[in-house]
Amino acid sequence: MKKVIMNLAAALCFVLGIVFAVVPGPSVIFFLIGLTLLAVHYPGARKYLRYCQSTLSKGCQLLDRKLAKR
Question: Which residues contact 52 (CB under 8 A, 6 or more apart)?
Fold first, then answer.
């Protein structure tokens, strides 16, 4: 039962992420929340979550360097 509820919450987060991708809003946050909920039970989702975390971290570091040069 807990797994079903978490899967439904993850699906809801993904749907909200898609909506906010079209309409201005925090789409990345909802995608990451949905992926985190799925990563609790599915090892494949953990792989994608690690990839997203490292990619976002690298992007933030690059942005910090660009802004520091200003």
Answer: 31, 32, 35
Measure the CA–CA gap between 49 and 43, rounded to whole angstroms. Answer: 10
Regions in the chain scoring below 70 on pLDDT: none
52-60 long-range contacts, Cβ below 8 Å, gap at least 24?
Answer: 56/28
Angle between helices 43-68 and 27-39 (to 10 degrees): 150
DSSP H helical segments within the chain, as ranges?
A: 2-22, 27-39, 43-68
Read off the tokens for 67: 């802004």
- The model's pTM is 0.79
Tokens of 55: 């990619």
